[in-house]
Amino acid sequence: MEISNKIPFSNPKFKDGLTPLQHKTVADVLSSRKKIIMLNAPTGFGKSPCSMTIAHHLNYPNQSLYLCSSKILQDQLAKDFTEAYQLKGRGNYPCTLLPTYNADRCFQQCDEYKIGDIDCAYEDAKKEALAATFTILNMHYYENETNYVGRFSKRKTVIIDEADILEDILIDFIALDIHPKTLEKFKLDQPKYVTKLDSWKEWADKALKILGEKVIKLKAAEDHLDRESKLELNKLSRMCLKLNMLKNDITEDWIFEHSEKFRFQPLWLDTKLTQQYLLKHAERFVMMSATMLPKVIACKLLGLDINDVDYLEIDSPIPIANRPIIYKPIKKLKYGESEDEVYKETIKIIDENKGVRGIVHGVSYTRAKAIASLSNRCIIHNTYDKNEKIRQYCDSKDGVFVSPSSERGLDLHGDLARFNIIPKVPFPNTTDKVVSKRIYSSPFGKLWYRAVTAQTITQMSGRTTRGIHDWSKTYILDAAFDSVIEFTPKWFREAIKVEF
Ligand code: SF4
Description:
Blueprint: H1 20-31, E1 36-40, H2 47-59, E2 64-68, H3 71-80, E3 85-86, H4 111-114, H5 121-131, E4 134-138, H6 139-149, E5 155-160, H7 166-174, E6 176-178, H8 180-185, H9 197-220, H10 227-248, E7 255-258, E8 262-265, H11 271-277, E9 282-289, H12 295-301, E10 309-313, E11 325-331, H13 340-352, E12 358-361, H14 365-372, E13 378-380, H15 386-395, E14 400-403, E15 419-422, H16 433-441, H17 443-461, E16 473-478, H18 490-493, E17 496-498
Parallel strand pairs: 1-9, 1-10, 2-4, 2-5, 3-4, 5-9, 11-16, 11-17, 12-14, 12-15, 13-14, 15-16
Antiparallel strand pairs: 6-8, 7-8
Helix pairs in contact: 1-2, 6-7, 9-10, 16-17
The protein binds iron/sulfur cluster.
The site of iron/sulfur cluster (SF4) has 12 residues, from helix 5.
């Protein structure tokens, strides 16, 4: 199909249209006939205008739906693509009827709204979003709406941005959490043996009978229920769906955790879960990310049939000279061993990069503190003051932002960062129950462990050198990088220079 290079949005910054690389990508996606198209598109490629154009062409004249992972990203997109309508979750809109509440305290339209006595910020926004030609939602909201409410379902093609975190979002949505307070509220005893799945299945059977009766009674009186009872009916109905899942679908392969609540979550997604919670809601999906895992791993992780997927890996438009990855294998860092040599090298690199700003990925607070204590240029944050410290860093002349948690979402373009240090390879924490069960229960788990580590390194490196005219150096100092290099994208590997 012949397509123009026009970006179908009026923002003057898109007046030059698609770049040749974006244009080719749009054409490649449009020529695919698969149910799922994965786009591994690096930082600097200009993913948003390209994906918005893809959404337009794939859906026109039908409505387009674009999903992103966070409200911040939703706001950014809505600012750039002003013709698109964005809808957020209920909690973001005040309730007109009860001004001290937000709309998340209501699950159905109130009578006052239905008869037109009042406006409702959420219901009005949703009505517009459902009618809009182009709508931007976040993934959590889409999951909730399509699975529980039934709206925004049956769209032709759904675009999913930042699809590298889609697996986490789906697993979290599918997981069953049972809080002791819920048991107390509905006068339900705990199962006889809380560590045994059979006991939980028996318990689910009994609980379903008790809660099912309450649902039937409330439904019979639905037209006359007060607000709190309607809320309770909604919560009970959702709880019953989850209990049915516990009774019929949860197997010994799932992870069971008991801390302040009981939690069941699938160890991995499989085709049945992904079909039920995602794929059945649209004809086709375009999944994009700057750090998509290799095709085989991404498909297995998302419970997708590899034959249903086309995978496009796009080259970086940023010259290699502008984004060198300098790999200095100082030492293979192992748990409990001294990291002093690596810290020394980190400070040496900071000192070599005089008069410019840069970032150090500490991976843990302990390590970040140890590094930050070695140079007065370092600016470190804690859980509460990250935004304030980012501002302080951006206002500095030659600050070094030392962070254990900035592998995503931080845009240090241009002079905001000219160097990027990864002292330690960020392997997932093996004391985490999910991580350890994944690694020790299957060969795929071991592959996954290395692949997601490579993905995090690519994310970390992507905080700097944000566009084709931008530049920065990334330094990797942990010799354990050897074990994950093969999982990094081609454009990343091409930029690696080893220095001893
Ligand atoms: S529908 Fe009525 S009760 Fe519900 S959020 Fe809107 S104004 Fe409030």
